[in-house]
Design goal:
By secondary structure, this protein is of the alpha+beta class. 26% of the residues lie in helices and 33% in strands.
Length: 238
């Protein structure tokens, strides 16, 4: 295969990965706290030598997370919490701590505040949050202070990675970092709300059609190049 064919194949590989990212975004339109994901394309140029054309290859292995605020929905749930501004809730996972924007929480049998799949929500000191079983009213202030029957119990922590580029996504709405996380004090917590996915369905479908069209054109080009090469070989053979 000639250079044009290889260049086109790398473009098709990148477009395929972008289609997968778009499909995942669309699949998570209704996922609480989900943040849209995209790809970063890069170009690698190989200079073949003096007086020769260079060879350009595309690559799309870097995934980018869109950190735009998702729309907020009023639920009225006592343990439904939404973040207005930057920051993440901190939860304790079996393999360490993770950050999330999914603020739909509940309590377990021990009265601890957890995600719906059982992982502890942590306070601003990194400890689990306990709700007394006899508490009649539970309120959360905008700064994360959690009170039961008017008595402060704990303060829900909000965190940000010191270097946002170190964030890696896992399980759709959970993020990990190998770097340092720091308290986030500028954001506001809203009780009785959840943050919806920040994916715009119309934009994603339009982008999917655009990428599919670009992939089809590249595929046709490869097929035409293949026919051209076959024709040249056949002519030379005669």
């Amino acid at each position: 295969m000639d250079s044009a064919g290889y260049t086109t194949l790398t473009r098709m590989a990148g477009l395929k990965r972008e289609l997968q990212a778009i499909a995942n975004n669309i699949a998570n339109l209704s996922t609480t706290g989900f943040r849209k994901e995209g790809l970063l394309f890069s170009e690698h140029i190989n200079a073949l030598g003096q007086g020769e054309d260079s060879l350009s290859m595309a690559n799309a292995n870097v995934r980018l997370t869109n950190d735009a605020q998702g729309p907020l929905t009023l639920t009225g749930g006592t343990y439904d919490l939404a973040i207005e501004g930057d920051g993440f809730f901190l939860i304790q996972m079996p393999d360490g701590q993770a950050m999330t924007r999914n603020g739909a929480f509940t309590t377990n049998q021990q009265g601890e505040l957890t995600t719906h799949d059982g992982y502890h929500l942590l306070d601003n000191g990194g400890a689990p949050i306990f709700i007394p079983p006899d508490a009649k009213t539970v309120s959360v202030a905008s700064d994360g202070t959690l009170s039961a029957d008017g008595q402060p119990l704990s303060q829900i922590g909000l965190y940000m990675p010191e270097d946002p580029t170190t964030l890696t996504r896992n399980d759709g709405v959970r993020f990990y970092t190998d770097g340092v996380i720091v308290p986030q004090e500028d954001a506001v917590i809203l009780q009785g709300y959840v943050e919806n996915s920040n994916v715009n369905a119309i934009t994603e479908v339009a982008r999917m059609i655009e990428v599919q069209h670009a992939y089809t054109l590249s595929q046709k080009f490869v097929e035409q190049e293949d026919e051209r090469i076959k024709s040249v070989i056949s002519t030379l053979g005669r």
